[in-house]
Design brief:
By secondary structure, this protein is α+β, with helices and mostly antiparallel strands. It has one domain (about 1-135): Thiol Ester Dehydrase, Chain A, CATH 3.10.129. It has helices spanning about 25-40, 45-50, 120-135; strands at about 1-10, 55-65, 75-80, 85-95, 100-110. The chain has a five-stranded antiparallel beta sheet with strand order 1-3-4-5-2. It is globular. Helix content is about 25%, strand content about 35%. A hairpin with a 6-residue loop joins strand 3 (about 75-80) and strand 4.
């Protein structure tokens, strides 16, 4: 299992007329969590793209438990439980301190520039295996 933590501060533009974060604004926070996790384990998204890979979102889900508000400092925890083969599934938690505000998940596929599904490059597979083996199963 690989776990990463990111921090964001809610901007005024991310809130709605009720003063709470608009639901769609959680998706960029999930992206922050995903790209941070990859970067922390030594996988550069830019390098993946340079080598011809893309990771589009195939599935996305979110459950909203409590509202986030302007200027809240939030922690996004991103978890990868299984070694990715062609798909990669990530799970997210958004917290304000100890308070769980939302949970979510995304599923991505490794594809080429033409949209064809492909396995991740060998160096990515090796890096995931190394980190997962080091940190242990979920």
């Amino acid at each position: 299992m690989i776990r990463s933590r990111s921090s964001v501060t809610v901007r005024y533009a991310e809130t709605d007329m009720m003063g709470v974060v608009y639901h769609a604004n959680y998706m960029p926070w999930f992206e922050i969590g995903r790209t941070t996790l990859l970067k922390e384990i030594g996988i550069s998204y830019r390098e993946l793209e340079t080598q011809g890979y893309r990771l589009p979102v195939l599935e996305l889900g979110a459950k909203y438990l409590r509202p986030a508000r302007y200027d809240d400092v939030l922690e996004i925890t991103t978890v990868l439980k299984d070694r990715p083969l062609v798909r990669i599934r990530l799970e997210y938690e958004v917290r304000r301190g100890d308070e769980l505000l939302a949970t979510g998940s995304t599923v991505h596929a490794f594809i080429n520039h033409e949209g064809g599904i492909m396995r991740p490059p060998a160096w990515v597979v090796a890096r995931f295996a190394e980190v997962i083996d080091r940190d242990g199963p979920a």
